């Protein structure tokens, strides 16, 4: 292979601004998404820290304490938590893993050259940008107005939180409601297009030999995610359109003063938004399945169960939305049925956790940064999942409803699980994406610090919530101050560790060692192509194998990476024979 | 499609198919992908309308007489039926057009597409006639509807509060703590204290008899309509507005889809005139056809649900 051919990769294939802005290459689109989605993470994270800071004292110390400023202070707080929630949910958590890692990895793991509809993929990115910019403008307008009296044109602000509950949103909420909701509508459209693209790709682009049960588990997770995106997001779309119609035209579907039913809004909203939490967590589970297996040098345990439990979660996720309305006036029968169904979600989730533990058992675990984040995921997801059962049980949900307990549970699943998995995935695939290695020591330090900071932030919130501290209050009784202070300190630790991660990546990008094609010894197809991959992904058509047949690779110290194991005489032991046996389905 | 692939396998890479994207191996694979993608997209469309159908079902279940009254008083079955006929015909011409594309019959394809476009335009024209009639009768969407709660005319007054001695909802005693235990032990539940959920009289809402059907005909003229309206229960009168919201939101969203459909059909027409399609490549025609059938299908549900209420 000539030197020129070797260095031609997707980053250097074409040059110039337009070659990026109009690219149809799924890898480049993944990177474009990464820039925007990580910016959204930065924005949402900044406001998380600001929120925590304003909660240091019981009486919003950021504003003068005279009554004239009281309303403004509370409005500012409402705008802040609305910005944090909406930006994180719609602009970071939902697109993070599918749009960045999924876009980048799905075709390569599948053995394809691109996703099924590259132009649709680019369109989905631009729709995301449009929605994100509209959304941010409206939200930041509210912040600037309430905090500094700066009035942006159309910067109305949004103070409903990310749930847009009626009747507040249709009557009293700030004027940014309509534009903000349209922003969410547009972001949802982008999410649908990504889902359509992924489903079609997985159905039609699998090369010869890539059977359904030879797909890496990340692809199963993305497939399940895409099903939810496609089935649930349109319901959100119509809900948001109805909300806009209610606000502008007074149609009387949701507004009780016009004969409508606010609980109908909650049903519609959660019919999307409950499955949406599986849009957020399923790809994370997929990443963990990859990372755990590769970094403990062991074939994944219970492949079929992990694969099918993803699909089971996707389907069960559609049947439990009513558990958000236990105190909203549902009948007791409906409450009980939803409670029961909610408990059933624990089964596929636990199946996954046990299988990950089974994979770790007697593996040769390497504490790479990716692995540390993945182990953090398992622990925090377990806590998040088990506290979910408290909220799914009727008797305990009634006192815990709308308290900090819910906040803590949600953040254990979203931050503790999804963000940890996202970081694990980024550390796992960083060498593949950029062809550079990150400094593993700083990665490890960041992982441990994030774990500590995260628990410091959110564990006190469980306690505080169990004592009845209500969520979304700008002020609070003084007895809760110790918890709030601990929580705020934890959030600073989290911020520091996330900055460390960012600097670690930046340093890796600039000064990192050149990455070998297979730095971790994984066997899924993306490790078969060079790092960074060439424009068409594969220099030679890939030969599909069991993606977790890690015995097919051996470590080569000269390149600090893994190379295909040379054919050897028949392995001696039974275990070795089992490991190298090709899967047949 | 099969001819194209055999050509490729016969000539190897030498055969250059301008429509085959680099990441597909065969035209069939590309066609299957596109079609699958379109079907999934249509699924999302159905779910989006599903929200509206769901809202419709709930409000119709809660207020059946409102829907009957409003549909009979204000919707024209005649125009609805003509529109149904037009849309079904346009679906036929669309399907015919797809076949024409498959068979390389360019002129027939152009004719079919133009006919489909005319059908769509005709549908929207009739819809405009219907919408303007509603405007004239002051029963437009939301605040522009005389039955809407925003308008304090003689219509749309909220149901009168029934004078009650007790609050409508009994606030339960605390569910835990010493107070709860003491309370539970001392006062057994008094069933006679439990109030119905709605405050208007039971006789009017649930046991309401439809007005004597001296006329099974539709009410005509403002006076007849008003008479029928006054026979509705207070709560039902309060919800006439909801019917019109359902009507306008459902037909409105459908109308937007018709407009989008006209856009994509025009695009296909332009590409046909540019000779883009042949029996080897007609994917866009096929996909637009599928979309158009869905638009037609949704109307086939909307027509009976809104116009033919008995």
Layout of helices and strands, plus pairs?
The complex is a heterodimer of chains A (585) and B (310).
Chain A (H helix, E strand, L loop, with lengths): L2 H5 L9 H5 L4 H29 L15 H41 L7 H31 L19 H4 L4 H29 L12 H33 L12 H34 L7 H14 L15 H29 L8 H24 L1 H7 L3 H31 L5 H27 L14 H31 L41 E4 L4 E4 L9 H7 L5
Helix pairs in contact in A: 3-4, 3-5, 3-16, 4-5, 4-7, 4-8, 4-9, 4-14, 5-7, 7-8, 8-9, 8-10, 9-10, 9-11, 9-12, 9-14, 10-11, 11-12, 12-14, 12-15, 14-15, 15-16
Chain B lengths: L1 H10 L15 H36 L1 H11 L2 H26 L3 H31 L41 H9 L15 H4 L15 H11 L2 H5 L1 H34 L9 H25 L3
Helix pairs in contact in B: 2-3, 2-10, 2-11, 4-5, 4-11, 5-10, 10-11
Describe the structure.
The complex is a heterodimer of chains A (585) and B (310). By secondary structure, chain A is mainly alpha-helical. Chain A has one domain (3-580): Cytochrome c oxidase-like, subunit I domain (Cytochrome C Oxidase, Chain A). Helices cover 65% and strands 1% of the residues of chain A. In chain A, helix 5 runs antiparallel to helix 7 and helix 15 (440-466) packs antiparallel against helix 16 (481-511). Chain A starts with a helix and ends in a 5-residue tail after the last helix. Chain B has 310 residues and is mainly α. Helices cover 65% and strands 0% of the residues of chain B. Chain B contains 11 helices and no strands. In chain B, helix 2 runs antiparallel to helix 10. The longest helix of chain B is centred in the first third of the chain and has 36 residues, at 27-62. The model of chain B is unreliable at 1-14, 177-185 and 196-207 (pLDDT under 50). The interface between A and B is large, with 47 and 43 residues.
CATH superfamily of chain A: Cytochrome c oxidase-like, subunit I domain
CATH fold name of the domain at 27-139 and 222-307 in chain B, please? Four Helix Bundle (Hemerythrin (Met), subunit A)
CATH architecture of chain A: Up-down Bundle
Give the C-level CATH assignment of the domain at 27-139 and 222-307 in chain B.
Mainly Alpha
Computed CA radius of gyration of chain B, to the nearest angstrom: 28 Å
Number of helices of chain B: 11
Question: Main sheet of chain A?
Answer: 2 strands, antiparallel
Q: In oligomeric terms, what are we looking at?
A: heterodimer
Class inferred from helices and paired strands of chain B: mainly alpha
Tell me the name of the CATH homologous superfamily of the domain at 27-139 and 222-307 in chain B: Cytochrome c oxidase, subunit III, four-helix bundle
Strand proportion of chain A: under 5%
Sheet with most strands of chain B? none
Strand order of the largest sheet of chain A: 1-2
- What value does the average pLDDT of chain A take? 92
* Percentage of residues assigned to helices of chain A: 55-70%
Total E-strand runs of chain A: 2
> What is the annotated CATH architecture of the domain at 27-139 and 222-307 in chain B?
Up-down Bundle
